[in-house]
Amino acid sequence: MVYTIRIDRYCMYSDELYNFKRPKECEPMYRIGIDVGGTFTDVTLLNSETGAYYTYKLSSTLHDQSEAIANGTKETLALYGVPVEQLEYFGHGTTVATNMIIERKGAKTALITTKGFRDLLEIGRQTRPSLYDIMEDKPETLVRRALRREVDERTMADGTILRKVNRDEVLRVLSQLKEKGVESLAVCFLFSFLNPENERIVEQCIKETWPEVYCSVSSTILPEFREFERLSTTVINSYLGPRMKMYIHHLQDRIRQVGVRVEPYITQSNGGVMSISSTIQTPVQTALSGPSAGVMGAVYVAKAAGFLDIITYDMGGTSTDVSLVKDGIAEYTTKRKVCGLPSGVPMIDVHAVGAGGGSIAHIDNAGALKVGPESAGANPGPVAYNLGNEQPVVTDANLVLGRINPHYVLGGRLKIDAQLSRAAMKKQIADPMGLSVEAAAQGVISVVNSNMARAIRVITVEKGHNPSDFTLVAYGGAGPLHAVHLAQEMGIHTVLIPPAPGALCALGLLTADIKKSYVKTALIPYDQATPEQINQAVLPLMEEGSRWLASENVPEQRRQFHNVAEMRYVGQNYELQVEIPAGLVDQADLDRMKEDFFRAHEMNYGYYNPNAPVQFVNFRSEAIGQVQKPRLAELTGHMETPSGAVIDHRDVYFEESGLVRCPVYDRSKFGRCPRVDGPCIVEQMDSTTVIPPNTWFEVDIHGNLIVNAFGDGKGGDEA
Fold it and tell me: Which of 13, 378, 466, 656 supports an S-S bond with 39, CB 3.0-4.6 Å?
């Protein structure tokens, strides 16, 4: 089945609420962002002048994502009467890289490494995926052993060359690999981050004798210490390279056929975007681009609403992603795994848990109710879809409780049967546990909410943050269904529901800056460090970043740099990041960095020792090309009471009050509204928001629902 969904005018608000004109007289320019998901491809078209945006959905074409992208572009422009010539920006978030790793459908890759280190890729850190499950398999390596080759070279720990690589040996290895039909090469030598000379010799041999093969060298991809993480990241890049290059070329061809003349920008895992040429060179940067686009969209919408300290909460059909944003800046990490494989590239620190609308509820062997991580996905989906699934899922539980329209979703385009959900909940959960059907469904909701609450605690409490100091920004198709109850469980007072929660990732694509990170390892004891040493480490990174920004056609006035040092106590295995000024560092800056390290250590670990020796480990510089941020459109219509938006009344079950007759509002009919009391349900094309008893919400100037989760008049952390 193929569903095409039109979401009108800034997420279904009526025309009279906007000062919007069709692009006939003034011909404004537009920006388009397209995010590909497992079920739907979301398209957001934004008027660069007015800030009004329009959202469109169509089924994803997972055999070739570029097909849905081209169709979505063409259909969206036609639907809103926008000539393709008026597109000034094209942003794209893709799951191609992630899917390739999950499905192990990347290129046939070979590895060339230092003699004696052939099996490092498999040995890794000698850690198991599950500490207490000795039978669980480690993730399958991306390069089979027969394609891992060694050469007799050696760089020492101080960067000196003990044995220079032998060109004849390299040429023999390349000839052997060529005969085996290798499509991609990864080169990673010991200590090459200190001295890349031997890797560059191999790279030159490859260019001279095998120029058509895709090649990644670790001193370019990730020039920092810890050989296993550097090796893994380099291999991932080579594994993705050829297929990503093919996909990018398909994407270019398809959108050109539609008439798009601007070059697309691709979202990275760090929340920024980069050109297609940079994407082809470092596809590992896109491995987790989907969640990062959502975070950037949430940051943008929340800032416009006056909230800087937020927790992003994205609940989809299979999983929930949460991330913490402090002072309007998302937290980053370089210690993330991609499908179980270490990757050292900077990523937005998103914590995922197997809890989504399709998570299956079941009773385990001990008689306890469990929800997930197994998911029914989009096909067969919930029992209510009547596509063959007999196990109730979270969506079925919400249907039993009356929280979702019992007859259809997606604005009527997908018919469902809530009675099927009720029958499955009774048979599979309620009867075996001796509960009413409503109590069983509420149990499912409580369990999945607890799973998501644990995820939020990981990014807040476990890192020294109080959740009540933050605003919860809920998005994804299922996020608004659970957001307020989840906020109550976490002590969060304010919840923000964006106008188009199901398509926020696509909006995030239109607000992301151009970014690329550079790193240099320099193990410097703090007591011996001088401002000159810090500057010598950081300034070359900034110069390299400036050259890259120039290649991305970013004018000098829009270039920025964000510099950090990674510091640790001597002997520790993990570092903490502290800020470095973008200009020249002086002694006062150096003193401040140590104090910042102490504060960061206390926040993360609960203590700090001012007398223990501290050292610098890595220096990072993020080159940023600032994209002009569009101004979001403002609602001009006002409503004294919400009665004009009521479309139905429905019996809804709440744990705190039982069955309650609730008004059901059509979100597209809301103007600015000062206060709407719960309990009630707010329906829209791409999501449903549940407002429990003793809570209330208001509609702000940008169309966000600002929910007071405790009904006590307290707000969130407003700027």
Answer: 378
